[in-house]
Structure formats: C-alpha cells, structure tokens
Amino acid sequence: MVEFIDPSWEKEYAENLKLSILLGVDSFSFSVINSKNVVLVYHEYEWNLANIQSPSEIISLANEIRRDFLYDAQFVSYTFQIIPGFFTFIPARLFDEHNIDVYLEHLTGKGEDTIAKYIEIVDLDLVIIYKELYFQQHLSQLLYPDKSFLPVFKAILPFLMQQDIHDTHIFCRISKNSLIVFIYRDKFFQFSNQFYCHQISDFQYFILLVCNQFQLNPALETLYIWGDGDEESEVVVSLKSLFSRIKFLNAQWVISPDTKTRIISESKVLEHLLNIE
Question: DSSP state, 200?
C-alpha cells in the first residue's frame, strides 16, 4: 500500500471530512478531503493486471482493502469513481441506447462479459459508453455492493476543456500499467483512448502513435500530464525526451488559498479533487 498522511488529520472534525474512492484498471485509492478541499490522507493499492484475474485473487485484494481503517470510517460524504477498462464516446444527439453494445464492439476483449453502461455529459453533448473489466465489476461488488461507480470522464472532460489553452493539445493520465490520452482542439474534445503498457517504451509508442494520427510534432508540443509519476519518474523522463515541454496538471483552483500543508501532489489526486461535492 502507498500511504500519504497529514499527522494532524485526526484533529479535523469528522463531519467536515469527505471520502473519495477511485477504482482504476491497476489501482484502488482512498482520499480523505477536508472542508478546504485539501487531501489529508491518501491510500493506494496497486496490482499487476496479469495477477488479478481469478475470483480468489479478487477476494484476496478485497479483503486487503477492507482491513484499511478508512474502509469502515464515517465521513460526511462519499464519492465513487471508476476508470473503466473499455470506453468510447459519441455525440449525445446520435446515441441510441438500443445499440449500446455495438458502440463497443471494436474495443472489448475476449472474455469480458461485463454489462455495457453509459452516462451523458450534457455540457459537451457527449455520451460515454463503457464497460468495466471483469475484476473491476467483482471488486466493486465485494467492497460496495450498493454503490454505483461513475466514470471519471464526467469530471475530467469538462476540466480539460476549461484549461486556458488553444490550438491542439495532448493530455495524458499515467498509471502503473496504463495510459489514457486525450486530444482537444481549440477547447473541443477530439479523441480519447486507453492503452495498456507493459514496459516504458509502450508509453512512448502509444503517445507517438496518437501524435502521428493527429499530425502533431512532439518536439513542438507541450504534454500535459497527471496521475502517477513526478519529474524523476522513469515514464516521465522517457516522455521528456520526446516533447518540448512536460507540464503537470493540478486542481489548485478548488483548494482554499490559505492552505499551507501539502502531503501529495495535486496532479496525483486530480480525479479525487475534481469530484468533490
């Protein structure tokens, strides 16, 4: 388990604390957030996708998470998000619920028999169609059987659109074994896809593949990133060799300006901060 904790966090009143929960394709994390929207406690559980497929392995992971003191703790509110294993986007005006499985035919892998779901982002005129991975569906049911995990894109896509940048820009969410690439052109959403990476060169390959598809020259582009990694991480260093500049995204605009304590980079907990209530 990865842990960041503010030593004085327990002095906060429980009724002011919120718990944000994020289920990714290769990690599960808790963030305790106070009334100033500052993360006081962060716990993250990581795994290798190849090692979390059987029911016994999923149960073992669920039991490990249940032993976390944050699992049963009481908070004023809770949010549940997921980075689904497969997803695609379609303009809301073109979406037909009866064709929901058809939209994912080009993405879903063999053996993934989970249910296709969708959610609309009204401000962007988009519908997100997605499927959870087998282990994601079962892990969430074991941990929170009565809760619905909403895809992170509902918060992330509007946030990226609001960035004060123009022309075509590349945004990337980096995690242990995966990469999500977003392309915006003059604040209009153009493209997104998730790639599974087994080695450092895979991160480079997939980003260059997208750049080629959109006729972007990495040597002239700024890459905006968040998620795992910092200036010295292996993946980030490898990407610096391709792009003219790397910039870490954060959500400091939601955090009280008089806050002094930072236990963790805002770019690592971006989805948690964007989904606060």
Answer: H
Neighbours of 74 (CB within 10 A): 9
Alpha-carbon gap, residue 271 to 223, rounded angstroms: 18
Residues 169 and 239 in one domain: yes
For residues 258 and 219, membership in a common domain is answered with no
Beta-carbon contacts of 81 under 8 Å, excluding residues fewer than 6 positions away, are 20, 21, 22, 23, 149, 150, 151, 152, 155, 271, 275
Placement of tokens 């870490």 in the chain: 248
Closest among 69, 35, 82, 43 to 276, alpha carbons compared: 35
Domain extent for 19: 2-82+252-274
**Beta-sheet pairing, 168-174 with 222-227:** parallel
Q: Which CATH number covers residue 231? A: 3.30.420.260
Residue 129 domain-assigned (yes or no): no
Angle, in degrees to the nearest 10, between helices 134-143 and 55-66: 40
Give a yes or no: residue 55 inside a domain: yes
Does one domain contain both 9 and 78? yes
- Predicted confidence at residue 16, as pLDDT, reads 85
pTM of the model: 0.92
Tell me, yes or no, whether 170 and 243 share the same domain.
yes
Average pLDDT of every residue of the chain:
89
Provide the domain count of the chain.
2
Lowest mean pLDDT among 7-11, 41-45, 261-265: 261-265
Q: What is the DSSP letter of 16?
A: G
Residue 79: CA atoms inside 13 Å, Cβ hemisphere, count? 21
Long-range contacts of 230-236 (CB under 8 A, 24+ apart): 230/265, 234/200, 235/174, 235/200, 235/203, 236/174
For 24-135, where are the E strands, in sequence order? 27-33, 39-46, 77-82, 86-91, 117-121, 126-131
Mean pLDDT in residue range 67-71: 96
